[in-house]
Structure prediction request, 364 residues.
Amino acid sequence: MRLSSRYFLWSVFALFTTASLLAADTTSAPAGGTEGDKAWKELVKAMQPPMPPAEWQGHPSPEQLEEFHKQQGEIAGKAAEKAREFYTKFPNHPKAAEARKDEVNLLQVAVQRGNTNQTAVLEAREKERLNDPSLSEDERYRLRIDSVRRGMMANRSDEAASRAFSEKSARELIKDFPKKDAGYELLLQVAGESDPKKSAAIAKELAAGDAPKEVKERAEGLLRKMEALGKPLPIKFTSVDGREVDLTKMEGKVVLIDFWATWCGPCVGEIPNVKKAYEKLHPKGFEIVGISFDTDKSKLSQFVEKQEMTWPQYFDGKQWGNKFGQEYGINSIPAMWLLDKKGLLRDMNARGSLEEKVEKLLAE
Prediction:
């Protein structure tokens, strides 16, 4: 996705957001003020995020973006050092406490943007702040969330390690911040990525515990999703073009249930593969039913007409609150399910090798 220059600039500012960067008034240090006042003005100036080059015209290349991120990381690291110099040299200055917060925020930006030389410093500063008894719960929570995020990124190349780290972090967040959502959300994510036995155990735990209402509902949906395998799907609706759809009356056909949306890039990317399979295998008994997570009915209708997607589409305009998405625990799209000729759900991951899987079910 290409970013407009305005969006990109504000995304940069979001990474640097602290009270100092967006609200600091450099005039608060009067002309001819103390040495500390002058140092504070210099620090505020050093913390200003770099502007994207004008020649990008809002459309940087991947190489340009990578170089700019590197530049951001270096600038943030140097600004963090200046923040530490400030509060160390002027510990009693009215802005000293703010500079301590700024240092951590800037170190987080530096590490996120690839300046790994600052990782050890960041971890040390976060530990210091977490041990500060005056730190508010919200600040403590944000620090922990940032630390978890970094850990997940560090383990992303090892699926098992990533899942183990995520579960451990989720349970620690729930224990320490039982009224915050992130821990429960992360644990639900782990459930969705685990083997069926573990997935069911975590989903039941969340559904029966103190998780927020939305997480409980999604956990219950995940359980229904797992229980649906090998059973008929009682999905019935009137499609956007007026056709009546009832999956229980489509026995003898192999049916793809495609949970998707026009705003979902990977979903749109799958359309050529889906159309190819449909054109080849529809004469042999292959059908498709779309479950759209869109919010604009006219846009959906125009899109499917332009793409020549001739199969029926369900629409209720609720996006992630989609009736069937909620009922069957759909937490990410595209999600492609296959029903066999007996009307039983046989595959919940038909996205890979769709044509081959359909042919196999047609041959049964």
User: Anything to note?
Assistant: The domain at 236-362 is CATH 3.40.30.10 (Glutaredoxin). The first helix runs from residue 5 to 16.
